[in-house]
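Q: Convert this sequence to structure tokens.
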Amino acid sequence: MNTINNAVKLATAGFDVALLASPEKIAKTHTVEVAHDDDGNMLAGFDIVGKNSVQYRDVVRATSVTAIKRSQTKKEQIDAKTDAGAGAVYDLSESRNRKIAIAVVVGAPGFVSNGQPVELTEGFLNLCFDAQPTWQDKILTALEADANFLAI
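A:
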């Protein structure tokens, strides 16, 4: 009896698998808030797309292909047992994280210059992440939460 009840619950609150084959992809964004006023209202943030987005998948593929090619070239192989090698691996990881963070940002609500919305460019995002490294971390953390990108 309990099994039937669970099956009914799954059928009524389940996921329509037809959505997986749909030519229209759901591109839900999530706003990562980075600046607030004294009352806690958002002043500025970043609109990001999730891991199912073309932007995310393209940058991960590009950085992975580069890493694979580097690992297969003898003169570019890194000895991670040395301090210099470990530092190089760390730098490559940070570079990949930066590229991912930049790729998934599709908007910057609240950022202005001389009263006008700031144009979203790689240069602007690099400026933001260099000045406030935790903003990049917040974006990468938000990417990990699938609930941020569920369309309900």
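The chain has a mean pLDDT of 85.
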